Amino acid sequence: MTVTQPRGFRASGVAAGLKASGNADVALVVNDGPDYTAAAVFTGNRVKAAPVLWSQQVLKGGIVRAVVLNSGGANACTGSQGFRDTHATAEHTASVLRGGAKPMMIGAGDVAVCSTGLIGELLPMDRLLPGVNAAAKALAVDGGGKAAEAIMTTDTVAKNAVAQRDGWSVGGIAKGAGMLAPALATMLVVITTDASADNETLDAALREATRLTFDRIDADGCMSTNDTVLLLASGASDRQPSLAELTEAVTDVCHDLAQQLIGDAEGATKHIAIEVAGAASEADAVQVGRTVARNNLVKTALFGNDPNWGRILAAVGTTSAAFEPDRVDVAVNNVWVCRGGAAAEGRSKVDLSGRDVTITVHLHEGEMGATIWTTDLSHAYVHENSAYSS
User: Fold this and answer.
1) CB distance 191 to 231 below 8 Å
2) What is the pTM of this model?
3) Are the CB atoms for 339 and 239 separated by under 8 Å?
4) Torsion angle defined by CA atoms of residues 30, 36, 41 and 47, in that order, rounded to the nearest 10 degrees
5) Phi, psi at residue 243, to the nearest 5°?
6) Positions marked active-site
7) Please, are residues 102 and 148 in contact by the beta-carbon 8 Å criterion?
8) Residues 109-142: tens digit of each pLDDT
9) Which secondary structure element, helix H or strand E, spans residue 247, and what is its range?
10) Distance between CA atoms of 14 and 137, rounded to whole angstroms?
11) Is the peptide bond before 34 cis (omega within 30 degrees of 0)?
């Protein structure tokens, strides 16, 4: 149940020595066709890693036949040499695949590159390129799980998802456990489908799916330099779903992966859904939810099992959303601790002993709503992000 579930794809994950731990750190996902259409969404950060800049160029051509990914180094803020290394990685990957046991007609411009890890250091190319060789030899139709393991950094578990449809499917892998914020997150995601779709359809489906899933998880308000979400279509099922059908399936996979990402966020003890209702617009709902998600006073209160609705209401008040302070209601785990901007049910009624927390904010301004998913701010998060470079 992974990225190689759809027909027409092979993948692998190997250890090339990029990680001091010796764990797998190079992954390869290959599209064997007959179609090679693709779409992508990249980080909104103005400081973009070399592989993001390279892959943006590749996607302009609308064709991706292979994706090579590495953990153990972000290749971000590495100047012209970092970009040359990314280009060399794509060239090497294409060359190896052209001469492999199952030769492919592929050039460097058909290869997307993704990297994750420490910012500001060049990749050890003397280890990465032999790792690509090994990954190419290990390619298999059941290799998606290995690829998911190879892209892990501070993740504690590999992340895979599949949406099965009548005669076709969508599969995906993802990594990410910190710097989870909109536009996208410190994530690498490869999604595949054996449906047939043109680039315009793929792009529309992916952007809508991303808008409702990856763009609505926010662990710590920090945006990465390397975020990449790729959608590849092989057409191997000989099925051509409608845009609505494809969007629904891609959204299902993205939602599953997004929830796995936020569930594995660094140091988290709470998985928090912030549901905003009664907003005048979807944009207002998203803004309110995102602001509450990023509020450190709210996050620390929840870490301490304190349903401190005053902090929630104060966070809502910093937004430009339409609302009247004396009409806002707030519930924590279905207990309405605030009604009309004032105290309501006793906070002692709120049970925060479990991991899952739901905060509901009703603005009473309209019919729109949105949900943002976040985590608490724990001692473990502070320790993990202070004890090593990231």
Assistant:
1) yes
2) 0.93
3) no
4) 60
5) -60, -40
6) 186
7) no
8) 999 999 998 899 999 999 999 999 999 999 999 9
9) helix 243-263
10) 10
11) yes
